[in-house]
Amino acid sequence: MNRKDPIFPKIPIRVFFSVILAMVLVRAAFAEPLHALQDRYITVYYDDSLRPAAERVLQLYPQVYHDLVKIFGWKLAAGPSVLLLQNREYFLRMVDSPLSVAFAVPEKNLIVIDYSRVVMHPFRLSVTLKHELCHLLLHQHIPLSSLPRWLDEGLCQWASDGVDEIVMDQEQSILNRAALTKDFISLGDLKRRFPRNERGLILAYQESKSFVSYLSSRFGTRQLLSMLDLLEEGTGDGIAAQKTFSTPLEELEKQWHQSLTPRLAWLAQISYHLYEILFAFAAIVCAYAFVRILLRKRLYKSGDDGVNEDDFS
User: Which end of the chain is more exposed for a tag (fewer CB within 10 A), N or C?
Assistant: First the structure.
């Protein structure tokens, strides 16, 4: 890593033209006019109605990129391109899962964002941009053979403080339920691909973020980044983990599972269903009150003056 290099490098001509070709293909496929905004750091392609969003991306990019450089100490060899789409149908033609809201194409140095979904949440554009930019950064410095999918997604969520690559109910933690039943997806099964079904996909993302956060909190950020240095050299993830943490990856995975205690998982489940629990409790109270009133009325009609109201309290 040469930290004396400028943070924002110039865009090589060959990369620029490869991205232009990709944009032409997208335009031909969808018959939609695309416009471009460009500065010395980034090019943003956008639909007719998204110029304000494109300007916002140009505004956000320097800080987002600087944050990632500060975390990893790595820089991009070329400024990326970002494609903003307003039409959800067009975006879904490019992805495998309807939960997706953005994706990165490292070989094209390209980020594609479904702005129609991102705009629904405040500050989501910044988190999404950082998440996808993190993918470009990791893939530019780590060979694909050394970067398992769980680590790729886990690091990008950890670095961007969020997931924002798929639609996820933040109040629903499938991971906590998996901790209760010990029904985890093994990291080995998440090495090259994630499940396509909704539950499996969300669990894969949550496991990835949780495991990377576990490594960072237990061993420290510096140790975690030391593992990335080994991966950059082409070391496999298992050997890199063993050398960095002095523990086999499989054992680290077991220890992480154990850290997700059932007690915390039960508390999480209760918190997620708090409204239902309160509603059920209120219904029981109402039913109890109704029975008391009904009994009082019957006793009153029967003229049983000897019954004390306190008997039913």
Answer: C
Residue 29 to residue 208: CA distance in whole angstroms? 34
Return d(Cα 44, Cα 53) in angstroms, integer: 10
**Angle subtended by helix axes 274-302 and 262-272, to nearest 10:** 60
**Residue 301: C-alpha distances to residues 13, 71, 122, 162, 295 (Å):** 95, 78, 61, 64, 10
Q: Write out the two tokens for 282.
A: 């209120």
DSSP 200: H
What is the average pLDDT across 131-136? 97
CA–CA distance, 289 with 176 (Å, rounded to integer): 37
Q: How far is CA 122 from the centre of its chain?
A: 15
Give the Cα separation of 255 and 249 in Å (integer). 10
Single pTM value for the model: 0.76
Which uninterrupted H or E stretch holds 255? helix 249-259
The mean pLDDT value for 215-243 works out to 96
Residue 232 or 312, more confident: 232
